[in-house]
């Protein structure tokens, strides 16, 4: 195993944070992407973005020990980030994993106001999650300014920020006043469909029940 020195800047994981998000926040302290940061810890031996993403669903002992050593964390803290998925089994998480990125606008704006950066919740990666459990509002998947779907977290000034790659808007900027021309770009949607806002409470109830079933079921229950 590669021997690494402890990193001088290594933020602790937030409750419910996705593993890739935490790795990204550590990397952002050095203005690096997660892949470049991990490659630096491995003496230039790079890793694919797919491998970093897969750590959210299945153990990767080599990388977890490497990150724990660099961040001065017990390795159990790294593995515990997978539990943010709701203690689901590996098969259940893989079954419901969302390939596209999603976020709660209220959450990320509050993050920046409180911490100076935003972070991804593990639950946002589950395809069955369409409503934020904290704010009871539909999570977004497109930039509210230009409607581009190429949105993600990027290092910016030593912090992890939610950015639109097309129009370069900082989506997590607190108290942002979106122009009227952009106000209609991101109407209320559930799983890509326009819905009446009155349906949100029903969607949240169904989502809560579905997550409970997935978390406590066997494979047959997941299929149902």
Description:
By secondary structure, the chain is mainly α. 38% of the residues lie in helices and 7% in strands. The chain is built from 10 helices and 4 strands. The protein has helices spanning 19-28, 34-41, 49-54, 61-71, 75-80, 90-96, 105-115, 180-183, 200-216, 219-223, and strands at residues 151-156, 159-164, 189-190, 193-194. The strands form 2 sheets. The chain has a two-stranded antiparallel sheet with strand order 1-2. The protein has a two-stranded antiparallel ribbon with strand order 3-4. α1 (19-28) packs across α2. The chain is globular and about 55 Å long. Residues 86-95, 177-193 and 217-224 have low confidence and may be disordered.
Q: Report the span from N to C terminus.
A: 42 Å
Sequence of secondary-structure elements:
HHHHHHHEEHEEHH
What summary fits the major beta sheet?
Answer: 2 strands, antiparallel
Shape: globular
Average predicted local confidence, pLDDT:
77
Strand order of the largest sheet: 1-2
Number of helices: 10
Estimate percent helicity.
Answer: 25-40%
The helix-and-strand class reads: mainly alpha
The fraction of residues assigned to DSSP E strands is 5-15%
Give me the Rg, rounded.
18 Å
- Count all strands and give the number: 4
């Amino acid at each position: 195993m590669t021997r690494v020195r402890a990193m001088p800047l290594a933020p602790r994981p937030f409750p419910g944070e996705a593993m890739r998000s935490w790795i990204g926040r550590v990397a952002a302290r050095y203005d690096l992407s997660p892949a470049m940061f991990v490659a630096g810890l491995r003496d230039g031996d790079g890793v694919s973005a797919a491998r970093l993403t897969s750590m959210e669903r299945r153990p990767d002992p080599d990388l977890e020990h490497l990150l724990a050593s660099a961040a001065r964390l017990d390795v159990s803290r790294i593995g515990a980030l997978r539990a943010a998925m709701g203690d689901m089994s590996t098969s259940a998480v893989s079954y419901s994993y969302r390939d596209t990125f999603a976020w709660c606008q209220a959450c990320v704006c509050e993050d920046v106001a409180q911490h100076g950066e935003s972070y991804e919740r593990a639950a946002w990666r589950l395809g069955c999650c369409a409503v934020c459990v904290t704010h009871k509002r539909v999570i977004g998947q497109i930039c509210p300014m230009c409607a581009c779907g190429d949105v993600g977290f990027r290092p910016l000034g030593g912090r992890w920020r939610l950015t639109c790659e097309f129009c370069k808007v900082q989506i997590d900027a607190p108290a942002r006043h979106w122009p009227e021309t952009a106000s209609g770009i991101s109407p209320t949607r559930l799983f890509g469909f326009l819905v009446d806002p009155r349906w949100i409470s029903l969607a949240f109830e169904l989502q809560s029940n579905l997550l409970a079933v997935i978390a406590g079921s066997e494979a047959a229950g997941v299929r149902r």
